[in-house]
Amino acid sequence: MELTITVNNREYTLEVDPKESLLFILRERLGLTGTKNGCSQGHCGACTIVLNGKAVKACLKKAKKINRANILTIEGISPEFPNKELHPIQEAFIQATAVQCGFCTSGLIMELFALLRENPSITEQGIKEALEGHLCRCTGYQPIFDASLLAQKMMRSKNSG
Ligand code: FES
Ligand code: FES
Q1: 2-to-47, 88, 110, 134 alpha-carbon distances in Å
Q2: Which numbered ligand comes closest to the C-alpha of 137?
Q3: Which residue, judged by its Cα, is nearest atom 2 of ligand 2?
Q4: Nearest protein CA to atom 4 of ligand 2, as residue
Q5: Which long-range contacts (CB under 8 A, 24 or more apart) does 152-160 make?
């Protein structure tokens, strides 16, 4: 099938198998390897991207269901800000030392990106629940949670300033 998608504000038209996953398309066809493949089965959250404004697991999305979709990956979030500095969520993860091996990090950041955009004032409990679908083999869950709260604070001050 012919698939047209917009990824990080750039439109692509590709010839793909309808059963191919969005994860495969991003990594193997477009070379966007910031989106990680942990399990290919929807269990780990490593492949989370933002599709039409919602955080979704790219390994579970088939090509036939995503024609004309608008997709944002970890490679596309920082240029929203001037001078290509890091996105505040990325900054927060560094400051809170929430990146260990980093394999789960881009999925977590994309989850938070969609969450905080939709609900900037979400409660701590709401953040905790949103992160439940993400596994970290390095088990640094407390720094990840701290980073998420810091990201929320940093985004608020950025938006109010
Ligand atoms: S690779 Fe998609 S949820 Fe694990
Ligand atoms: S930082 Fe290593 S898997 Fe999460």
Answers
A1: 23, 36, 27, 32
A2: 2
A3: 101
A4: 136
A5: 152/116, 152/120, 152/122, 152/127, 154/88, 154/89, 154/91, 154/92, 155/88, 155/89, 155/116, 155/120, 156/120, 158/88, 159/120
Ligand 2 centre distance from Cα of residue 49 (Å):
17
Q: What is the pLDDT of residues 33-55, one digit of tens each?
A: 999 999 999 999 999 999 999 99
Q: How far is the CA of 104 from the centre of ligand 2 (A)?
A: 5
Distance 66 CA to ligand 1 centre (A): 17
CA atoms within 13 A on the CB side of 159: 10
pLDDT digits (tens, 9 = 90+) for 78-91: 865 556 789 999 99
Ligand located closest to 44 CA: 1
3-state secondary structure of 45: coil
Q: Which domains does the chain have, with CATH numbers?
A: 2-76 (3.10.20.30), 79-160 (1.10.150.120)
